[in-house]
Design brief:
Layout: H1 4-10, H2 43-48, E1 53-54, H3 60-74, H4 87-92, E2 96-104, E3 107-118, E4 123-131, H5 141-154, E5 160-167, H6 175-184, E6 187-195, E7 212-221
Parallel strand pairs: 4-5
Antiparallel strand pairs: 1-2, 2-3, 3-4, 5-7, 6-7
């Protein structure tokens, strides 16, 4: 659960930390959609104008809420599609978090999210896309991803996005994730092998015979 004040404090600007220039870019003031009445949270407006949190300087409620969903899924039947990540990893990557909020009886909850990084060549990587199983079909995460990408393109903060989608040993690709990213405009560009690191022992049950796991790489390039 996250407080209204935490969200309100982070609606003022989006911070895009370029590894080379460390620029702070002001976000469109229309993002500040709170009224004078505390708790006036509009999911519709949030989907159009996402709040982007820096892992380096954000409230711990955001990071902990997002990471809690990842840990929950690692213990579920979806674990074969989930890469583990820690708060330390996100901070070291200079990652940015976009939480999926859900308004339930006037309580704002984090029920999923994703993170992205941007390198000095303005190439962005998007990962860790998760939604609590109890809220699947009740959020519009595809709209949130799409509007986040559009925002970063419009700010010239990124020129392309890359994601990877798990491919199982039987050759099947994570169908829900693949369909989601294709609907946004991502296209397959190849397949990559990853080693199973110490953070991901839950993937050992579905590893390849060469001891790693494979993922389909997909890209979305601005203006293409």
């Amino acid at each position: 659960m996250i407080s209204n004040n935490t969200i309100k404090q982070n609606t003022q600007k989006v911070i895009i930390l370029n590894n080379k220039e460390k620029n702070r870019l002001e976000q469109d003031k229309s993002v500040n959609y709170y009224s004078s009445n505390e708790g006036n949270f509009s999911l519709e407006k949030y989907l159009a104008h996402p709040i982007i949190y820096s892992s380096v300087c954000s409230d711990d409620d955001v990071l902990n809420g997002y990471l809690h969903i990842i840990q929950k899924l690692i213990k579920s039947e979806d674990k074969k599609y989930i890469n583990n990540i820690t708060k330390k990893d996100l901070i070291e990557k200079n990652a940015f978090i976009v939480p999926v909020f859900y308004l339930d009886e006037s309580v704002i909850q984090i029920v999923g999210g994703f993170y992205f990084t941007i390198d000095e060549l303005q190439s962005a990587y998007l990962g860790g896309v998760v939604v609590d199983p109890r809220y699947r079909g009740r959020t519009s995460i595809h709209k949130l991803i799409s509007s986040t990408i559009d925002l970063l393109f419009s700010l010239n903060a990124a020129i392309e996005f890359t994601i990877v989608v798990r491919q199982l040993p039987d050759g099947n690709v994570n169908p829900k994730a693949s369909k989601l990213f294709q609907s946004i405009g991502f296209k397959k560009v190849g397949t990559r092998k990853f080693d199973i690191c110490g953070l991901n022992p839950h993937l050992l049950d579905s590893e390849e015979i060469d001891g790693g796991f494979y993922a389909v790489e997909m890209k979305l390039v601005r203006g293409v």
